[in-house]
Specification:
The complex is a heterotrimer of chains A (82), B (284) and C (373). Chain B has 284 residues and is an alpha/beta fold. Chain B has 10 helices and 8 strands. Helix content of chain C is 37%, strand content 22%. Chain C is globular, with a radius of gyration of 21 Å. Chain C folds into 2 domains: 185 residues, 3-Layer(aba) Sandwich (Rossmann fold), CATH 3.40.50; 104 residues, Rossmann fold, CATH 3.40.50.920. Bound molecules: thiamine diphosphate (TPP), iron/sulfur cluster (3 copies) and magnesium ion (MG). One iron/sulfur cluster binds next to strand 1 and helix 2 of chain A.
């Protein structure tokens, strides 16, 4: 049995192609660990892209790739950390 | 913590998605949160996983927001006329049965102006995969009602609510003998991808209906103002039921969405296979 | 077909001529008086390894042949006026995306359902202007079963060479008329294939024209990652929705035909030397004119026949060439008459018939007598 508060095994990070983002925030909403947040920045089209805001040890990107599948704009690339 | 070693399957998949897009054309034309991009992503991933040669794959679209999909895939791709994606694809497939032919188009394109082609191509069982993006409306022209708009829904041409009855697409496709018929929403990321993957391995006239959000011109007139609200509707109101009855497959205004693989049968000869027999007979 | 003599209708000759020209893909929907073309193709194409499909309508038929053409096949469909009316949107698509296709129109009495079994020439302007926008097509119109067969080779050659829809006109009379015809040996004619890309995938822009304004055409499945769209597009084939891109593309689509018009023109000039009056007539209607011209000459009337075989681009230089009076005898209420008027220096008279029958030699002769000097 994994311990309840044990740090997640798989870790990742997200490359955000800000210029492709249109600010739908599916990624922000459906990220299971809520590590994506709406950034205050604006891209050239006037949308707020997401940004990664981890709070280790447990609020981290677990490389589930869900945001990558949700993103309608092909703006996200999840990289797994090994 | 430094990513050095071998790339994971998912990372490789993402790289290949990039290579199958005409990235010099991104960002694409679709609105924030539009479901067409999600569907396209699922299709590309399924294609890669199915290990089908993209150079032997053709994507044919009609006209509409969904019709623009052909313009973003880095494969042989055709943006045809409104409603005519299916017969255009039929010509390609019949001439070169070795090609993998996919129609990617919208509900209006496939079922209103192109309805006759859908019906007859399904009946003949051409070996084509049809990905039908159903956003309940004509997105491209500003959100008029179409053949899949639920009864009661508000659109620019049904300002008092839609008096029409919408097509029950899986029912229609099954009644025409289509060997693979499924429905998903854009919330069903993996199920949709897996379903396309399966369908790519099947033969004959395969239909996958994708219930997709058009927040811009449909959602905001129908109590779903943001992309997220539409996605939440799909999340909360979808139920998987592979053995659904035709009545259960029917869609109602902001009601339950029954999803699943409603039909998956193999061994029905395709038109292209049957024509090979014709050639043999003619040459006897 | 084995070389030799056959007794065929215009419809059969159109089908056999197409196969002789290399056509191996046909999609169509039956309509009088063109249905025998579909029937012949259904019988013959599978024998030569080709494909025939009867589609659900004419819109599907033309869409299917455009798709098939992208695989490298020589393709055809055949119909009559009502079918052309349905096809017109996709004729524009083929013109815009530069796809070689051949469309036979067996013209009948019109408009609407008109006279299904009887002759008409009311679709001459439709052939040129049927779809929306400024574009050029090529249109040919033979006057005999033999010429129908022979001209099919030219029709396919033009479609392939210029990457353009070719509207092959016949009429209700020609379609159903039987004549003895000669099929030459396979190697007796030149068959032109569309220009192929010279650069490898990745380097070849899909719509980059050569000096002749015609881009080479890759096939589906070769790795060129073709993108073709009916939207205004740039040389990559990508939509570019600007006045500048429109200016470049539409000019080129038209100029690639206009600049080669003289190579495309085929005109029969019958006894036009030293003529005072020339009858312009096309298709099966020209046959009576030939007889009438002979009779008129016997009576001392210096008459001639000018028969445009190429209807579009209109062979206007042949009209300009003669300082004569023209009579335009056509089975409509004045179509090519207006083109002749545009270029003639002398008087131009319209001798129309509304459809259902051709002019008789007597009617033509009667008109010619007014020009006796
Ligand atoms: C012959 C013709 N009629 C009408 C139109 C205008 N038109 C363009 S797209 C469209 C509807 C598209 O709806 P759908 O297929 O559902 O695609 P969506 O935009 O919703 O993805 C219409 C009516 C057209 N392009 N051509
Ligand atoms: S990969 Fe998963 S955990 Fe990481 S940011 Fe994306 S959705 Fe969140
Ligand atoms: S899902 Fe994509 S487009 Fe939407 S906010 Fe996230 S990065 Fe931007
Ligand atoms: S109008 Fe609707 S369907 Fe079209 S791109 Fe926008 S959200 Fe998508
Ligand atoms: Mg739609």
């Amino acid at each position: 049995m994994p311990q309840k508060n044990a740090p997640p095994k798989k870790r990742g990070t997200v490359k955000i192609m800000e210029e492709r983002c249109k600010g739908c925030w599916y990624c922000v909403n459906y990220c299971p660990t809520k590590v994506l947040v709406v950034s205050p920045r604006l891209n050239s089209k006037g949308y707020h892209p997401p940004e990664l805001k981890e709070e280790p040890p447990d609020k981290v990107c677990i490389a589930c790739h869900l945001c990558e599948l949700f993103c309608p704009d092909f703006a996200l690339v999840v990289e797994e950390l090994k | 913590m430094i990513s050095a070693g071998k790339k994971s399957t998912m990372e490789l998949l993402r790289e290949e998605v990039e290579s199958l897009l005409r990235i010099d054309r991104l960002p694409h034309v679709w609105c924030p949160g539009c479901g067409i991009g999600i569907t396209l992503n699922a299709f590309l991933r399924a294609l890669i996983r199915a290990k089908i040669d993209p150079n032997k794959t053709v994507v044919v679209s009609g006209i509409g927001c969904t019709g623009r999909a052909a313009g973003y895939v880095n494969m042989d791709s055709f943006h045809t006329t409104h409603g005519r994606a299916i017969p255009f694809a039929v010509g390609i497939k019949f001439a070169r049965p070795e090609l993998n032919v996919v129609v990617f188009s919208g509900d209006g394109d496939l079922f209103a102006i192109g309805g006759n082609h859908f019906v007859n191509a399904a009946r003949r069982n051409h070996d084509i995969l049809v990905i039908a993006v159903n956003n309940f409306t004509y997105g491209m022209t500003g959100g008029q009602h179409g053949p899949t708009t639920p009864t009661g829904a508000y659109t620019t041409t049904t300002p008092y609510g839609n008096p029409d009855r919408p097509f029950n697409i899986p029912h229609l496709a099954i009644s025409l003998g289509a060997p693979y018929v499924a429905r998903w929403t854009t919330y069903h990321l993996m199920q949709l991808q897996n379903s396309i993957y399966t369908a790519l391995h099947r033969k004959g006239f395969r239909v996958i209906e994708v219930i997709s959000q058009c927040p811009t011109v449909y959602g905001r007139r129908n109590e779903m103002k943001s992309p997220l609200e539409m996605m939440e509707y799909f999340r909360k109101f979808s139920v998987r039921k592979d053995d659904a009855t035709f009545d259960e497959m029917e869609l109602t205004y902001n009601g339950r969405i029954v999803v699943g693989v409603f039909r998956d049968v193999q061994g029905i000869p395709t038109y292209e296979e049957r024509y090979n027999d014709i050639i043999r007979r003619a040459q006897k | 077909m084995k070389p030799g003599y056959y007794f065929w209708s215009g419809d059969i000759a159109a089908a056999e001529g197409a196969i002789f020209a290399g056509c191996r893909f046909y999609a169509g929907y039956p309509i009088t008086p063109s249905s025998e073309i579909a029937e012949r193709m259904a019988l013959r194409l599978p024998q030569v390894g080709g494909k025939f499909i009867e589609m659900e309508d004419e819109i599907g038929s033309i869409a299917a042949i455009i798709g098939a053409s992208w695989t490298g096949e020589k393709v055809m469909t055949a119909t009559s006026g009502p079918g052309i009316s349905l096809m017109n949107e996709n004729i524009g698509l083929a013109a815009m995306t530069e796809v070689p296709i051949v469309i036979v129109n067996a013209m009948r009495g019109a408009p609407s359902t008109g006279l299904p079994t009887l002759v008409g020439q009311g679709d001459l302007m439709q052939a040129k202007w049927g779809s929306h926008g400024s574009y050029e097509i090529i249109s040919l119109y033979p006057d005999s079963v033999q010429e129908t067969f022979d001209l099919m080779v030219d029709a396919f050659n033009y479609a392939e060479k210029y990457r353009v829809p070719v509207l092959f006109l016949i009429d209700g009379m020609l379609a159903h008329m039987y004549e003895k015809i000669y099929v030459p040996p396979e190697d007796a004619v030149e068959r032109i294939e569309r220009k192929r890309p010279t650069k490898p995938p990745g380097e070849q822009l899909i719509y980059e024209p050569d000096e002749d304004l015609i881009p080479p055409m890759p096939r589906i499945g070769e790795g060129y990652k073709i993108h073709a769209s009916g939207l205004t597009h740039n040389e990559k084939g990508y939509p570019e929705l600007t006045p500048q891109a429109q200016e470049r593309l539409i000019r080129r689509l038209n100029d690639k035909i206009r600049k080669h018009a003289e190579e495309i023109w085929k005109v029969e000039e019958y006894r036009t030397d030293n003529a005072d009056v020339i009858v312009v007539a096309m298709g099966s209607n020209a046959r009576a004119v030939r007889t009438a011209v002979d009779e008129a000459r016997k009576e001392g009337i210096k008459a001639g026949l000018l028969r445009p075989i190429t209807i579009w681009p209109f062979p206007y230089k042949y009209i300009e060439k003669y300082a004569v009076d023209y009579i335009v005898a056509e089975i409509n209420y004045g179509q090519i008459y207006h083109k002749v008027k545009e270029y003639a220096s002398g008087n131009v008279e319209l001798l129309p018939k509304m459809g259902g029958e051709l002019h008789t030699p007597q009617e033509i002769l009667h008109a010619l007598r007014r020009y006796k000097k």
